[in-house]
Specification:
Low-confidence stretches: none
Structural class: alpha+beta
Shape: globular
Helix content: 10-25%
Radius of gyration: 22 Å
Largest sheet: 5 strands, antiparallel
Number of strands: 10
Number of helices: 14
Distance between the termini: 19 Å
């Protein structure tokens, strides 16, 4: 298959990702002494077209748009491997075929895994994670999405069968609540609030747009989000100087693949609502405005700085969703989530530090079940974890002095949603009023922890040709 073509890339690696109402993440291990057999079954799986190409997913979206509905049966799947999984696969292949010694040098975060990188990320100790993610035997991930839970289940079971479950591959004998079965977590689009995460904000607005893959009108309407393809998908071209690694030499089989970061986040909606109810102490006129100052967007998705007084509603064409700066923040926190993770005019050039986010909410709605667990199954893609997710989390979200206040040199604090303080730091976010003066009343900058990491892992999603060739042959 031709390198660089959608027919050679897995189908979730762009802004729209898999069409879905439901999605399951199935984590599996490759059984002892079954590496050679696994590579054979992997090739059969891909030849049977059970792993979706980007070409197929783009066609699915075209079909959906022609019907003006997503209410018809469809499903798609992606397969990805941890470094531990690639090491197992290599045992079933001849002559150091995967050249994993090179990968250890080119991509140390991936090679070490998320548990090891946790100290750098300020993550909770792995012993505090959900049991599923404490496992040392997560070798692979199947990300299966579809138009219904039944479609997902049928697709997943078919793939597991082709991979030789439970002999060649096996379940991880541990769970992650609220899931009641081993080895997987399941998410679904919020039926009453489609497109929104559990705090109520529209998600997926600032997605990187890739020329030749994303629709022309999306690129025309959102020029700020146009992103070099090699920031998301591994290519032959070098990355610009100054980024971690600069030009990174990798084994040829990694071309057209992408690194997948998975993290399970639990959201405390009750605590968020309690916090925003104190809006007067934060010098705000409503709970919605307080939330908007923390997120950088209103719940509709409209940028706060374009309309600081009230939510104007979302622009469906996207023409005003990303074309703005924070030159006049009007009370938007320096550490507001979208200001931290996509700095715009805050002194960073971001196109090569972007990630494609294609996760899904999980759990029941807070209004329906206040005691239940809920949150986000976060999944993002990038050509380098060091330049993408790791940079965003460690250098931006976690750093109290980023972004810099160009006027008064005030401390920004932590991202109020995904920021993670060091062990000797207090979690805090500096709040400002509409005149950009620091709020010193009751709340001040002491924001409660709203999101908790419950586990995750780093994976690599290879190209179709690599699945059929280097990985899928014995």
């Amino acid at each position: 298959m031709a390198i660089g073509m959608p027919s050679n890339m897995q189908g979730d690696l762009f802004s729209r990702g898999f069409p879905k109402y439901n999605e399951s993440y199935y984590f599996f291990s490759i059984s002892k002494d079954q590496a050679t057999e696994f590579t054979k079954k992997l090739a059969v799986l891909v030849k049977n077209e059970e792993i979706s190409t980007l070409e197929k997913v783009l066609a699915d979206w075209g079909l959906i748009e022609s019907h003006k509905s997503t209410i018809f049966p469809l499903s798609n799947a992606l397969i990805a491997f941890s470094m531990a999984g690639l090491e197992i696969i290599q045992k079933g292949l001849p002559n150091n075929k995967l050249q994993l010694d090179i990968v250890k040098n080119s991509d140390p975060a991936f090679a070490g895994g998320m548990k090891k990188d946790g100290t750098n990320l300020n993550d909770p100790e792995p012993k505090e994670w959900h049991p599923l993610f404490r496992s040392e035997s997560i070798h692979g991930l199947l990300k299966v999405a579809g138009s219904s839970a039944d479609q997902v289940e049928t697709k997943l079971n078919r793939i597991k069968g082709l991979l030789g479950h439970p002999t060649v591959i096996a379940d991880i004998e541990a769970q992650s609540l609220p899931a009641s079965v081993n080895s997987r977590v399941d998410g679904q689009v919020r039926e009453k609030f489609k497109g929104k995460e559990h705090f109520g904000f529209r998600d997926g607005i600032s997605q990187p747009l890739l020329k030749g893959i994303d629709k022309t009108d999306a690129i025309t309407n959102n020029p700020y989000m146009v992103t070099p393809r090699r920031a998301i998908i591994v290519g032959k071209e070098s990355l610009p100087g100054g980024l971690t690694g600069g030009y990174v030499a990798r084994p040829g089989w990694m071309l057209d693949g992408s690194f997948l970061v998975f993290r399970k986040f639990e959201q405390d909606v009750g605590k968020f609502q309690e916090l925003t109810s104190e809006f007067k102490s934060a010098s705000c006129i409503s709970a919605d405005q307080f939330g908007a100052r923390l997120m950088g967007r209103w719940q509709s998705g409209a940028p706060y700085v374009r309309s600081p007084g009230s939510d104007p509603g979302f622009d469906p064409k996207g023409e005003n969703s990303n074309e703005f700066t924070f030159a006049s923040p009007k009370g938007c926190a320096l550490a507001a989530h979208i200001r931290k993770t996509n700095p715009r005019d805050d002194g960073e050039v971001t196109p090569f530090k972007r990630i494609v986010r294609n996760g899904i909410p999980y759990g029941t709605d807070y209004a329906d079940d206040k005691t239940g667990k809920r949150g986000l199954l976060f999944a993002c893609y990038q050509s380098s974890i060091e330049n993408g997710f790791q940079e965003i989390q460690t250098t931006w979200a976690n750093k109290v002095k980023f972004p810099r206040d160009s006027h008064n040199d005030n401390e920004a604090g932590h991202d109020p949603f995904i920021g993670q303080p060091a062990k000797d730091e207090q979690f805090r976010t500096t709040l400002f009023d509409e005149n950009n003066a620091i709020v010193t009343t009751k709340i001040g900058g002491l924001i409660p922890k709203l999101v908790t990491l419950q586990g995750g892992e780093y994976f690599f999603a290879p190209s179709i040709s690599a699945l059929l060739g280097e990985l899928g042959s014995a």
